[in-house]
């Protein structure tokens, strides 16, 4: 059973034992059980459930930040008179190796304005990315590696 499933089960048991089936009571039971699971998993030297939730929230916040910054950058690029764009495709070397992680990274890149995941190599070590402005592909690779890819590895390893 996953930690989330156990957390939900304990929250439902909390509602059953307390005799009050309200949302606030469920939320309280969920938080108490998350804390209990976090304490137990830390002692068993597993990945902390609360820590993983924190890393997933961090990835979500990074995505929304990149979404806003990229939308602004694309808007300013498109509204310029000269619109000096250098679109192109570059090969991004993948550090993530599991299908879920590769898919998540490709989707995050695609959902960010100005970039689009095109393909993954047969050996699953390279992701091909199209950028609306590919004037600095090394900088874009560095941003992806230090941003989305690092946060994905923190959250799911």
Describe the protein.
It contains 5 helices and 3 strands; from the N terminus they run H-H-H-E-H-E-E-H. By secondary structure, the protein is mainly alpha-helical. Strands 1-3-2 form a 3-stranded antiparallel beta sheet, with helices on one face. Strand 2 and strand 3 form a beta hairpin. It is elongated, with a radius of gyration of 21 Å. The model has no long low-confidence stretch (mean pLDDT 89).
What general form does the structure show?
elongated
Could you tell me the strand content as a percent range? 5-15%
Task: Find the structural class using helix and strand composition.
Answer: mainly alpha
Radius of gyration: 21 Å
Structural descriptors:
11% strand, mainly alpha, 157 residues, Alpha-Beta Plaits, 64% helix, Cation_antiport_E, three-stranded antiparallel sheet, single chain, 2 domains
Chain-wise SSE layout:
Elements: H1 3-18, H2 23-43, H3 49-79, E1 88-93, H4 99-111, E2 115-120, E3 126-131, H5 137-156
Antiparallel strand pairs: 1-3, 2-3
Organism: Rhizobium lemnae
Subcellular location: Cell membrane
Transmembrane segments: 12-40, 52-72
Quick synopsis:
The chain has 157 residues and is mainly alpha-helical. It has helices at 3-18, 23-43, 49-79, 99-111, 137-156, and strands at residues 88-93, 115-120, 126-131.
């Amino acid at each position: 059973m996953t930690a989330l499933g156990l957390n939900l089960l304990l929250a439902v048991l909390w509602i059953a034992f307390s005799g009050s089936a309200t949302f606030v009571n469920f939320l309280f039971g969920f938080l108490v059980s998350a804390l209990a699971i976090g304490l137990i998993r830390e002692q068993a030297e597993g990945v902390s459930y609360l820590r993983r939730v924190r890393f997933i929230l961090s990835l979500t916040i990074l995505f929304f930040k990149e979404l806003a910054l990229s939308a602004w950058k694309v808007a300013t690029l498109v509204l310029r008179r000269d619109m000096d764009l250098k679109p192109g495709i570059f090969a991004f070397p993948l550090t993530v190796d599991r299908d879920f992680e590769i898919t998540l990274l490709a989707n995050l890149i695609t959902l960010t304005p100005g970039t689009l995941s095109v393909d993954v190599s047969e050996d699953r070590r390279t992701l091909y990315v199209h950028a609306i402005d590919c004037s600095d592909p090394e900088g874009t690779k560095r941003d992806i590696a230090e941003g989305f890819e690092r946060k994905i590895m923190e959250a799911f390893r």
